[in-house]
Amino acid sequence: MEDLLTTLTARGMVHDHTPDLAGRLATGPITGYVGFDPTADSLHVGNLVPVMALAWLQRLGGRPIVLIGGGTGLVGDPSGKRSERPMLSEEQVAENSAAIRAQLARFLTFGEGATDARMRNNADWLGPLGLLEFLRDAGKHFTISYMLQKDTVKSRLETGISFTEFTYMLVQAYDFAHLAKSEGCELQLGGSDQWGNITAGIELGGRRDGQKLHGLTLPLLTTASGAKFGKSEAGNIWLDAAKTSPYAFHQFWLQAEDADVEKFLNFFTFLGGDEIGTIMQEHAVDPGKRVAQRRLADDVTERIHGTASVARVTAVASILFGGGDLIAADAETLAMVASAVPSTTVSAQVLSNGLPIADALVQGGLAASKGEARRGLEAGGFSLNGVVVDLTRVVTQMDVRPGGVILLRKGKRNWVAVRLEG
Question: How many Å apart are CA 55 and CA 80, to the nearest integer?
């Protein structure tokens, strides 16, 4: 059976690791942890690299620990940041942590078995920790020169770094040493920007407790075009359906560049290397069919949002781009279609009086003027809720579909959703 380092290396997921990790893994499975910052009530796709690493650790017989930074989240990690993060209230941290755990349960099996994942909150031990105890147990083991050499500190010296964030690496080091003693945790995983913090924990565990600890960092992804992975025009691609709809989530993966898709299949699915190779061979025959992107999008969307969502987003794409049946669509599908297109609003009062279709088209931006709308209607170029309409059509309350939306279309692919105000 392959070990974690061999598996992650084969999938291109290793940026760096401590030199003796391979030897330790050769002796058997390991307990490892990843820390998650609870500054939002959802993970985003940029978090999926360490999540997948933990999932592989569990699949290979190890025990994953999810560390929620309820304590460090009140301080803020300076890694990769140009300015100090806002501090969170304890209530915010608790709410965000619960939401994150629910999302992680789609990748990890939580429980009390030998390989079951545990979730821990560092507020449980950092909260009661006194300043003098912290300085004695952690601070005395690090020199200022050692801390200044870390990239997370160096990158902020010119713009300014508070003492709070300066000490962050010591707090994270304390976490690693604590988990080593209390949970038998020997490995910390994280993004490549976490190397300095991880090695600080290894130092503390060794100097203070005589423990042999290990670290493994994962690449910080960018796309082949140089864009930051996980971003869209609208911002982060979230795992929470309320923040990023399943359709938009699926589209994000479907739009992966050909130069990236094999890497993404290795990083974000559990497909074997041979199967990925077969997919890429099929993709190469006709890249325009986007075989690899579709397999990637379906796989990741199913894991995050469920099998039913994959079928639904496929139906939505068919409606928007392939002439799918809008008339028979249910409320959830209609809502997903509406969320994917531009929208305008109209009052119930206006609909009760009747809104001429030409006015609706102009209001929705599908026609520049009533004259243009009339000409298009005479040519059969507009539809309402999937049915071609003519100039005599008046939009009324009877046209409102489940979810309070009316869908107008120009030609085959230009849509607007008319929503009821309020």
Answer: 25
Rounded to 5 degrees, what angle do the CA atoms 221, 222, 223 make? 125
Structure-block tokens of residue 197: 């913090």
Q: Which CATH class is domain 341-420?
A: alpha beta
Angle at 153 between CA 120 and CA 129, to 5 degrees: 35
* Whole-angstrom distance, CA of residue 187 vs CA of residue 197: 13
Q: Using alpha carbons only, give the angle 11, 314, 230 rounded to the nearest 5 degrees.
A: 40
**What does each C-alpha distance from 393 to 45, 316, 343, 356 come to in angstroms?**
44, 26, 20, 6
Confidence of residue 83 (pLDDT cuts 50, 70, 90): very low
User: Do 223 and 257 touch, CB atoms closer than 8 A?
Assistant: yes
Beta bridge mates, 65: 33, 118
pLDDT tens digits, 144-153: 776 677 666 7
- Asked whether 388 and 372 are in contact (CB, 8 A), the reply is no
Residues in the chain: 422
Residue extent(s) of CATH 3.10.290.10 domains in the chain = 341-420
Radius of gyration of the chain (CA): 26
User: How many other β-carbons are positioned within 10 Å of the β-carbon of residue 322?
Assistant: 11
Q: What angle do CA 314, 319, 320 make, to 5 degrees?
A: 100
What is the distance between the alpha carbons of residues 281 and 292, in angstroms, rounded to a whole number?
A: 9
Are residues 200 and 172 in contact, defined by beta-carbon separation less than 8 angstroms? Answer: yes
The hierarchical CATH code for the domain 4-218 is 3.40.50.620
Specify the 3-state DSSP secondary structure of 216: strand
Summarised one tens digit per residue, pLDDT across range 269-323 is: 999 999 999 999 999 999 999 999 999 999 999 999 999 999 999 999 999 987 7
Q: Report whether 144 contacts 161 (CB < 8 A).
A: no
SS3 for 316-383 is HHHHHHCCCCCCCCCHHHHHHHHHCCCEEEECHHHHHHCEEHHHHHHHCCCCCCHHHHHHHHHCCCEE
> Which structure tokens are listed for 35?
């820390």
CATH for 231-338, options being 1.20.910.10, 3.30.10.20, 1.10.240.10, 3.40.50.300: 1.10.240.10
* Residue extent(s) of CATH 3.40.50.620 domains in the chain: 4-218
Higher pLDDT, 77 or 303: 303
**Residues 6 or more apart in contact with residue 385 via CB below 8 angstroms:** 326, 327, 399, 401, 406, 407
Structure-token pair, residue 256:
């992966």
